[in-house]
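Troubleshooting: if your tokenizer reports a length mismatch, compare against these two reference records.
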Amino acid sequence: MAQATLSIRMDATVKKQFDAFCSEVGMNTSVAVNLFAKAVLRERKIPFEIAAIDDPFYSETNQKRLNKSIASLNTGKGKVHKLIEVMDE
């Protein structure tokens, strides 16, 4: 079987962590990427779920509530609370 080269760009930290993981499980990065490609071809899909997670913080309802609260604070209404940080021990 003829060999071909695949060149990709990825964050240096991600690459380092991925290389380390591959080494831990007894393979190199090339083998891992080949396994991924073969799984895609065999299953005719990405072999894991890819989804955009809807963060409720950015919902239209919550953004309206936040903007209303900010407007109230800016006009002197409302109560400002002090942030207290709690350290896990």
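Reference record two:
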Amino acid sequence: MTTVFDQSAKDLRALRHPEKRERPVNPIQRKPDWIRVKAPGSKAYLETKAIVRANGLHTVCEEAGCPNIGECWTKKHATFMIMGDTCTRACAFCDVKTGIPGLLDADEPAKVGDAVAKLGLEHVVITSVDRDDLADGGADHFARTIRSIRAAAPGTTIEVLTPDFLRKHGALEVVIAARPDVFNHNLETVPRQYLKIRPGARYFASLRLLQQAKEIDPATFTKSGLMVGLGETREEVMQVMDDMRAAEVDFITIGQYLQPSERHAAIDRFWTPEEFEGLAQIARAKGFLMVASSPLTRSSYLAGDDFAQLRSARQAHLKRA
């Protein structure tokens, strides 16, 4: 008979040795033509890579195997991933490694600020691994990074893509007090899929986080994203849109889930470009200020261009009001 102690010990071993975690083998499907991208290698791509390396930083572009890295880094767009490269959770869709993270690098916020200034970024996205081991979930580190960017590159607008800070009282308030221009937290999938896809998260806790961010500072843009292709229905996706709008989310991103390895969740199907456009039309009709919906859409893909449109959309909305 398996006791609670035995199960806890097994979970701890899995966290220390994520490579031994038992996951079903799911063969990777061949991608349709509309998802193919060119291999990176331009001069600007290599320059961006050199600056990231010189500052000893991590990017979600690399750690999560983003298909848009060649295009974004060529344009000198990078999403910095702070607080290390090891996550305390093991979501079934994510390629970031899982384990016991190391200590925070106290100099990291300054390094990020320096890299942003050297790259000359007009808009930057800062995300992180989940740090459930920290008392504040890393909220103060986010705030310090925001302040460092403001000091090093005053003209840069800042978007944060944060964890859910589950059971970390006061963490969200610390991040919002640092005044990011955009607060992003991804719902990722429909509620029915959470136990399988995001077992460490809670759908309504994530939804409430987005709502609270808007309540704390109504001037902050809020943003959230969904993956499709995990077995959700069109009706479930539309219900999540309604939930986001009830939480006053301004910007929704919708993209195709791409399976990182045979040990990750299997793809149920590839949604077509026409279906993504249909979702975009529905989202706009539901009142989102900004919608990005395509097979290769990711949370931070073309984030700078999208922010400019988002700001313009708000100004137009206020004029109509």
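Descriptive notes for reference record two:
- The mean pLDDT is 86.
- The longest strand covers residues 221-228.
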